[in-house]
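User: For a reading group we're discussing how well predicted structures match intuition. Take Pyrroline-5-carboxylate reductase dimerisation domain-containing protein. Before you show the prediction, I'll give you the sequence so everyone sees exactly what went in.
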Amino acid sequence: MGLASQNVLGAASMANKTGKHPGQLKDDVTSPGGTTITGIHELEKGGFRGTLLNVVVAAAKRIRELSQS
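Assistant: Thanks. Here is the predicted 3D structure of Pyrroline-5-carboxylate reductase dimerisation domain-containing protein, as structure tokens, for the group to look at:
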């Protein structure tokens, strides 16, 4: 689990530091047929993008609910 969390932290840090679009960062760090892009394709097949969006929306909704109580 440590490797996975370090990858996520590294990606977030790169996005914050560079201001680049996540798609551009993906292109910068992956190679055709490499391990990273293969993993990204699996995430996409599993609906990762939509799931991530749902997580953010649900958390924001809950923050609003908690702030009103």
